[in-house]
């Protein structure tokens, strides 16, 4: 099925079963997406078993079975692993929209490694996305269809607010703003809690009031 024909009820494949995948899968399940529509490839058995047990999704140790016939594929692997993963998937995701959450890997690189993949989308989630309260920057080439964009946003909105940027270079600004920004808020909260303890409040009270 081509992405332009997607109705919102097709298969979704994740390559990589780490924290971000768990967050997105959990959000999708909570929104009523059937677990049978979701597949995840993950080499670590413990992570596979956890996803299958907690969410009932289909899990695989290899990428080929996970992405088979899926019109939407999310690459949730570390940047240093991305080239090898893409080259292994080349020819298998040509008709899918491929979404990368890896920082610093451009659309041009992704398309070169994937081969004939038509639609490639970059996204930059942040740490609060792990609890469904994130802010996610997205970029797609101008040739990417509205149907493809909508399909990507339906999935990623499970982790928080989505915002599209018109130029790929702006993803770097997203990384600086929403990607790194929460760390400064956490640092401020930690300093406030420490100061409150110094003023005589207990750790429990200071923590509750800071949060």
From TrEMBL:
Residue intervals of the Pyrroline-5-carboxylate reductase dimerisation domain: 168-210
Entry's Gene Ontology BP terms: L-proline biosynthetic process
EC number: 1.5.1.2
Xref: InterPro entries: 6-PGluconate_DH-like_C_sf, NAD(P)-bd_dom_sf, P5C_Rdtase_cat_N, P5CR_dimer, Pyrroline-COOH_reductase
An example molecular function term from Gene Ontology annotations: pyrroline-5-carboxylate reductase activity
Alphabetical keyword list: NADP, Oxidoreductase
This protein's record includes keyword Manganese: no
Pfam families hit by this protein: F420_oxidored (PF03807), P5CR_dimer (PF14748)
Enzyme class: oxidoreductase
Domain Pyrroline-5-carboxylate reductase catalytic N-terminal: 12-104
Sequence similarity: Belongs to the pyrroline-5-carboxylate reductase family.
Record-given protein name: Pyrroline-5-carboxylate reductase
Organism field: plant metagenome
Lineage, top ranks: unclassified sequences, metagenomes, organismal metagenomes
């Amino acid at each position: 099925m081509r992405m332009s024909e997607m109705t919102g009820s097709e298969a979704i494949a994740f390559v990589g079963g780490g924290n971000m995948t768990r967050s997105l899968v959990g959000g999708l399940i909570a929104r009523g997406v059937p677990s049978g529509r979701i597949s995840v490839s993950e080499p670590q058995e413990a992570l596979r078993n956890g996803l299958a047990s907690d969410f009932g999704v289909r899990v695989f140790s290899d990428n080929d079975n996970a992405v088979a016939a899926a019109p939407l594929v999310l690459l949730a692997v570390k940047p240093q692993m991305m080239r090898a993963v893409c080259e292994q998937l080349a020819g298998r995701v040509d008709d899918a929209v491929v979404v990368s959450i890896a920082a610093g890997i451009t659309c041009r690189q992704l398309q070169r490694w994937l081969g004939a993949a038509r639609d490639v989308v970059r996204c930059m989630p942040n740490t609060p996305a792990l609890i469904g309260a994130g802010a996610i920057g997205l970029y797609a080439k101008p040739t990417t269809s509205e149907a493809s964009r909508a399909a990507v946003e339906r999935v990623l909105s499970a982790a928080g607010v989505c915002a599209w940027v018109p130029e790929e270079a702006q993803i770097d600004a997203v990384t600086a703003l929403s990607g790194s920004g929460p760390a400064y808020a956490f640092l401020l909260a930690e300093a406030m809690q420490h100061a409150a303890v110094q003023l005589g409040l207990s750790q429990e009270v200071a923590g509750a009031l800071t949060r």
